[in-house]
Design a protein that fits this description.
The complex is a heterotrimer of chains A (310), B (645) and C (321).
Chain A lengths: L1 H21 L4 H12 L4 E5 L5 H11 L4 E5 L6 H5 E6 L4 E6 L6 E5 L6 H13 L1 E4 L2 E4 L5 E6 L12 H4 L4 E5 L4 H9 L3 H6 L7 H11 L6 H16 L3 E3 L3 H17 L7 H12 L4 E2 L6 H10 L5
Parallel strand pairs in A: 1-8, 1-9, 2-5, 5-8
Antiparallel strand pairs in A: 3-4, 6-7, 10-11
Chain B lengths: L1 H22 L4 H12 L1 H4 L6 H25 L4 H19 L7 H17 L3 H26 L7 H25 L23 E2 L6 E2 L6 E2 L4 E9 L8 E7 L1 E2 L3 E3 L13 E4 L2 E3 L7 E7 L6 E2 L5 E6 L9 E2 L5 E2 L10 E7 L20 H4 L7 H12 L7 H15 L14 H5 L7 H14 L4 E8 L3 E2 L4 E5 L3 E9 L3 E5 L15 H18 L3 H24 L1 H23 L3 H11 L11 H10 L4 H18 L2
Parallel strand pairs in B: 1-3
Antiparallel strand pairs in B: 2-7, 4-10, 4-18, 5-16, 6-7, 8-9, 9-12, 10-15, 11-14, 12-15, 13-14, 16-19, 17-18, 19-20
Chain C lengths: L4 E2 L1 H19 L4 H25 L3 E3 L6 E2 L4 E8 L5 E10 L3 E10 L2 E8 L5 E12 L6 E6 L5 E5 L12 H8 L10 E7 L11 H7 L3 E6 L6 E5 L5 H20 L4 E5 L2 E5 L6 H10 L19 E2 L10
Parallel strand pairs in C: 3-10, 13-14, 13-16
Antiparallel strand pairs in C: 1-9, 2-4, 4-7, 5-6, 5-8, 8-9, 8-10, 11-12, 14-15
Helix pairs in contact in C: 1-2, 5-6
Chain lengths: 310, 645, 321
């Protein structure tokens, strides 16, 4: 195992390095995304335009040696537009299913709040099951299948709110803000990212990446760590300003993400630190406050007050 | 919390009523209703809303106040303190019943302390110490709960913690108070700025239990019992058994039905007189001593030198410079009042073995003819006395020896009659009432009754007043005699043995020392002695206590050196605690313990939500001793491997 | 932390102690009196020390208090780090300008914990926090000690939105509420068509489709009120109208916050867009809390499209019942 673990660390380090060659990103943003990739989860990126969400997705796909598609969601986008549709092929004399952009390893679902709920639910179904149903036939999507969705809160004309239940399909929600001063300066002075991206070689093969994803399940979660996870979960449920606390499914997602993070760090066991580091991206969109608003502060408070199980 | 506070207030007031009870300032007619109203106060409190209820209260208190003021003005200043005390108790119950949850009970606290203070002047009883030990934690707890209530906030589940905390604090306060009491040097004879003018003497109507040269029956009013040490008797040679507990002060042979007196100069048969042997020494010829004692007479106003009947020789220390003394024919020694510069007197005495001093060798000296006033009851004798004498004698053979007759009368009185201090409920107002059996009495009644009954039977006898004490301090071989040990008994002139001490007062009365056997009685005696140490505390006692405390470590060391198992015994509870803690800690994995120890040694605050790795990272950023930091790194790695891997 | 000071009870106790001490000095020495006085002295000294120790090492912080509607109790809390020892009777105080002190207390605290309290229902306004501190009279209540703690700058109490129950019905209610010129449906997206069912709004009939099929076809809308709301507030009005307008605006702001929508408000000296990705709603609520009427001759609000609803409505309270 330790052999694999070391390899994993090296491979992940490589991915990270190459990604950072192309773009300027904070560790806090990149880590959850890589973690979600390993944990077979999907990421919802929230942030202002122009911070390189698309670039990030493309680079990630390239570095991991994966196929990439981008879907721009609009309000007239139909489910068949993303899944694909059967087309009459006169030369063959039959209907042939033409796969839509969803059949890729890395799918960037841009501005999902612009599309109608119907299309959105189609995307969500694909995210959850890893397959789509076309004309009564289940079609398996690519393996791995990783959705990076963005939600752009700046424009509100012609947008639909993303239902809370839908948010649960995303393993993590990440805020992408402006880079720091240094980062932004590097952005101005550095090479054109597009040029760098063109010359970028994959750091890992698809097969190896799948093996890594399978390895996530072998990461151990010790009893104290599970107890800590439970105590935080229970604290969110008991908190007075919370309408809906962390569900058991959310808690399991949290543990899974923590496993992936441990694997990324080259450990074969989960630390409370993993849970704490992922509490915000994993839990903040799954806790609903009584008065509305963001659960970030509440998570901070709970993490500070719930004792770490030693 | 509110309920707890109410209960504490009720308990505080109950303690106050206890204080009032032990002073005997109030009868049950007062105390009973107060007690009921106190206990029922939680039930009565809702009635506060009604104006009529409040009017009733205020009216009743006003009426009681009037009665008390009237009583005080009629009974004189003597009852001022007691009436004031009762009034304070009344106010306390009034406050308890009329303070709502939103009103401040400050006055109740102060009043309760005032009651404790006033009581300390009126009663030196052991019960006082018990009550105070109950009162102090109650006060601390009540203050604590009051402070919590005033600050508001929720207190779910905090009652137990507050109680525990309050008890620990009360124990600390009482402990420190005792240390202050022991250590603080002070003037134990300070007169006070106002001197004697505000001294709370036992009021005129109130007897203080102390030695009197004459006895008058039928004086009523409460008896003040003082623990003032009057005499200390140090055993120089012999055993405590050689020293009778009866120290004679005066003999009284004339009784007129109410009053006992002694006619100085009247011939007293049956005793050799004290013969001056020079240099302040007096002796009775012909007797050899068995024990020697040194008596220190601490009361500068004492007019007698107190000696046991068996004393055969005494010598004033300093060759009689302590003042002139005049031995009297009845074997008592008079010490005339002279001047103001009187000081405590010490004298040594030689005692013959009891029974030897009145040995058969002196039979010839016992006179055949005894003066009539010793043999016959003079004055008015209550009719009950004669019938009683006949009734007791009826069961005796006609030729019974005098000794048997005396014992029959003594045991009859001792067994059939109740001992009560004057002023207590049911105590006799005169001899007749006492003899008829309807009322109890104190030692003077018992002794008078026996003397009158014996004289009706023609047996010569006299009343003796002095002190009786069995309060031996075994370690120091010192017998302490206090004011409350004042006693009266009877001496019977035995035709064979001369004057014999006969005490009809039943044992176990207030004047007796540790009466009874068994652990409880002994424990009670020990408590009594300890408490007497507190009330009779003086400079000497303070020095002794401080010296004892200072020498405690070395003594403990020496004691352990002699008996090492004592140390084991002392360490047993500590060992038990250690074992318990260890067992409890055993449940905590050793890696966690090691990590906690290493983390604790850095002196950094550890927020609960911080992981070991985060803590380590934070510790690394600080300039900390490298050795400790290394230990933290090691223990963190070990802990992680053991617990999280 | 300032040294402990005697409380009211403490001052009375000192007086009482003085009287008892005087009596002790005046009267001849008595062991029991000395003992009692010593006990009282020890209690006083320990009370001082214990009170100081009860607060020593305690740190606290009052986190920002969310804006709350007028007329409702405002919950607030104090984060306290008490250390390992149990602390008794900690009481946090916040002095609000124009209101006075408010308190929150906990009887026993240990470790890191929070004291929770509730401000009494306050009228609309922005209450500056003049002082925030943590105090305790425990254990004996004879002395009190306090220490300042960081707290919020102000408590924002915005107008009570209770006056606008229409909002509970969502977008349609909002339309009713703002009345003139606002069409919530203008921004709704038709998502599909379906057959007519009795009770459907006749305005939703898709006439072309109905004509084609020969049966009523209804347009279905999705997205609810997921749209921006633009409002102009003209404060040149009488206080009562302004209160009503502010109350409506508070309701709009809350509904928008609940639905993660965006509100744009323009008023004299104040304009902005609030919501996710814009300025926080807190600023809008703060403005609503502090807004004052302007004289009739005052400046006009910033220009806006005539389609944008204006408050207060020209017709007094519009068609509202």
């Amino acid at each position: 195992m330790s052999q694999t673990i070391t390899e994993v660390r090296d491979a992940c380090g490589d991915i990270r390095r190459r990604l950072l060659d192309v773009m300027v990103l904070e560790e806090e943003t990149l880590d959850p995304i890589l973690t979600a990739l390993l944990a077979r989860g999907h990421v919802l990126i929230e942030g202002i335009p122009g911070t390189g969400k698309t670039l990030l997705a493309r680079t990630l796909a390239r570095v991991a040696g994966l196929q990439f598609h981008r879907i721009q969601f609009t309000n007239d986008l139909m489910p068949s537009d993303i899944v694909g549709s059967s087309v009459w092929r006169p030369d063959l004399g039959e209907f042939r299913f033409v796969r839509g952009p969803l059949f890729a390893n890395v799918v960037l679902a841009d501005e999902i709040n612009r599309t109608s709920p119907r299309t959105l639910s189609c995307l969500l179904e694909a995210m959850e099951r890893g397959q789509v149903t076309v004309e009564g036939e289940a079609l398996t999507l690519a393996e791995p299948f990783f959705v990076l969705a963005t939600r752009n809160p700046i424009e509100f004309h012609g947008t639909y709110p993303v239902p809370e239940a839908a948010l649960d399909r995303f393993l993590m929600r990440v805020h992408l803000g402006y880079p720091g001063v240094d980062g932004e300066l590097r952005l101005y002075l550095g090479e054109d990212p597009e040029a760098v991206l063109d010359g970028l070689e994959p750091a890992i093969e698809r097969r190896d990446l799948l093996a890594l994803m399978d390895a996530v399940d072998t990461i151990r979660v010790s009893e104290p760590v599970a107890a800590y996870c439970y105590q935080v979960t229970a604290a969110t449920r008991a908190h007075e300003s919370v309408a809906l606390g962390v569900s058991p499914r959310a808690a399991m997602s949290w543990i899974r993400a923590a496993r992936a993070r441990a694997l990324l760090a080259g450990r074969d066991y989960v630390l409370p630190d993993d849970l704490k580091a992922l509490a915000h991206p994993v839990l903040s969109h799954r806790i609903f406050l009584a008065g509305g608003g963001d659960a970030g502060e509440l998570i901070e408070e709970i993490l500070a007050s719930v004792p770490v199980v030693l | 919390m509110r309920v707890l506070f109410r209960l504490l207030l009720v308990a505080l007031v109950l303690a106050d009523l206890g204080f009032v009870y032990i002073t005997e300032a109030a009868s049950w007619i007062w105390l009973g209703p107060l007690l009921l109203l106190t206990v029922a106060s939680p039930l009565l409190l809702p009635l506060r809303r009604h104006l009529s209820y409040r009017l009733l209260w205020n009216g009743s208190v006003l009426a009681a106040f009037t009665i008390l003021v009237q009583h005080a003005s009629r009974a004189g200043v003597a009852y001022l303190l007691e009436d004031g005390l009762l009034l304070a108790a009344l106010c306390q119950v009034h406050l308890l019943n009329n303070i709502g949850p939103d009103q401040k009970p400050d006055l109740l606290f102060f009043n309760s302390f005032l009651i404790a203070v006033v009581t300390s002047y009126l009663s030196l009883d052991l019960m006082y110490s018990v009550l105070f030990l109950v009162y102090a934690p109650l006060l601390v707890l009540a203050l604590q709960v009051y402070a919590l209530l005033r600050s508001g906030g929720e207190g779910r589940g905090s009652t137990g913690r507050v109680l525990r905390d309050g008890l620990v604090r009360a124990a600390a306060a009482v402990g420190i108070t005792m240390l202050v009491f022991l250590y603080l040097p002070r003037d134990f004879h300070r007169k006070g700025l106002l001197g004697d003018r505000i001294r709370f003497r036992p009021p005129a109507g109130m007897l203080e239990a102390d030695f009197t040269e004459e006895v008058t029956l039928g004086r009523s009013g409460p008896m003040r019992v003082s623990d003032r040490v009057v005499l200390t008797v140090r055993l120089l040679s012999g055993t405590p058994a050689d020293v009778p507990g009866y120290f004679r002060g005066a003999t009284l042979d004339f009784f007129d039905g109410r009053h006992w007196r002694y006619a100085r100069g009247t011939s007293v048969p049956g005793d050799e007189r004290w013969v001056p042997a020079g240099d302040g020494t007096f002796a009775r010829p012909g007797h050899r001593g068995a024990a020697r004692i040194r008596v220190e007479l601490l009361d500068p106003h004492a007019t007698r030198l107190f000696l046991p009947l068996s004393a055969v020789r005494f010598a004033l220390e300093g060759g009689g410079r302590g003042g002139r003394v005049a031995p009297l024919p009845d074997l008592t020694v008079y010490r005339p009042r002279s001047g103001l510069d009187r000081q405590s007197v010490s004298y040594t005495a030689t005692l013959s073995r009891p029974g030897r001093a009145a040995g058969r060798t002196r039979r010839s000296r016992v006179p055949r003819r005894v003066p009539a006033h010793l043999r016959n009851p003079a004055g008015k004798v209550p009719p009950a006395a004669r019938s009683l004498a006949e009734r007791i004698a009826r069961d005796l053979p006609a030729d019974a020896p005098q000794r048997v007759v005396v014992e029959a009368f003594r045991s009859f009185l001792s067994r059939r009659y109740r001992y009560l201090l004057p002023g207590q409920e049911g105590s006799a107002r005169d001899l007749g009432e006492f003899l008829r059996g309807g009322a109890g009495g104190h030692c003077e009644y018992f002794a008078t009754a026996l003397a009158v009954l014996l004289r009706i039977r023609g047996i010569p006898c006299r009343l003796v007043t002095g002190y009786r004490s069995e309060e031996w301090d075994a370690a120091n071989r010192v017998l302490a005699i206090r004011a409350r040990h004042a006693h009266a008994w009877v001496e019977v002139l035995d035709p064979d043995a001369g004057w014999m001490t006969v005490d009809p007062t039943p044992p176990g009365d207030g004047a007796a020392g540790a009466a009874g056997e068994g652990i409880l009685a002994r424990l009670g005696a020990l408590l009594n002695r300890t408490w007497n140490e507190v009330t009779g505390f003086d400079e000497k006692a303070r020095r002794r206590a401080v010296a004892w405390l200072a020498a405690l470590p070395s003594r403990v060391g020496a004691g352990i050196g002699r008996r090492p198992w004592l140390l084991l015994l002392a360490l047993l509870p500590a060992g038990g605690l250690w074992l318990r803690r260890t067992l409890r800690r055993r449940r905590v994995p050793p890696e966690v313990r090691a990590w906690l120890a290493a983390a604790g040694s850095l002196g950094l605050e550890r927020p609960p939500g911080e992981t070991p790795r985060a803590f380590l990272a934070r510790a690394r950023r600080r300039a900390l001793p490298p050795k400790r930091l290394r230990r933290l790194e090691e223990t963190t790695a070990a802990h992680e491997a053991a617990r999280y891997r | 932390m300032r040294p402990p000071l005697p409380t009211g009870l403490g001052v009375k106790a000192l007086l009482f102690y003085g009287v008892l001490g005087g009596a002790f000095l005046a009267a001849p020495y008595s062991n029991l009196y000395f003992l009692l006085l010593a006990f009282l002295t020890v209690l006083g000294v320990l009370g001082y020390f214990w009170t100081w120790r009860n607060l020593a090492g305690v740190t606290g912080r009052i986190p920002d208090i969310e804006p709350h509607p007028a007329g409702a109790p405002v919950p607030w809390r104090v984060e306290v780090r008490a250390g390992r020892r149990a602390r008794f009777g900690l009481r946090a105080r916040m002095v609000l300008s124009g209101h006075g002190p408010v308190y929150a207390a906990a009887q026993v605290l240990e470790g890191s914990s929070a004291i929770r309290g509730a401000l009494p229902p306050l009228p609309r306004g922005v209450y500056r926090v003049e002082r925030a501190d943590l105090g305790s009279n425990s254990p004996l209540g004879l002395f009190g000690v306090r220490r300042g703690i960081p707290g919020p700058d102000a408590v924002v109490v915005y107008p009570s939105p209770a006056a606008a129950p229409e909002l509970r019905r969502g977008a349609a209610g909002l339309a009713d509420l703002l009345g003139n010129g606002f069409s919530g449906e203008g921004f709704l997206q038709p998502s599909s068509l379906r057959e007519y069912r009795p009770g459907d709004d006749p305005r939703r009939i898709h006439h072309k489709a109905s004509a084609r099929r020969g049966a009523f076809v209804i347009k279905e809308f999705e997205g609810g009120a997921g749209n921006g709301i633009e409002v102009v507030l003209d404060r040149r009005t009488d206080p009562a109208s302004l209160e009503h307008a502010l109350s409506l605006l508070a309701a709009v702001a809350l509904a928008a916050r609940e639905g993660k929508e965006v509100v744009e408000l323009k008023s004299q000296g104040f304009a902005g867009t609030f919501g996710p990705g814009h300025r926080p709603f807190r600023e809008l609520l703060t403005f609503l809390a502090a807004a004052e009427p302007l004289p009739a001759g005052g400046p006009a609000p910033p220009p806006a499209s005539p389609a944008v609803p204006r408050l207060p409505a020209r017709r007094p309270a519009g068609g509202r019942p």
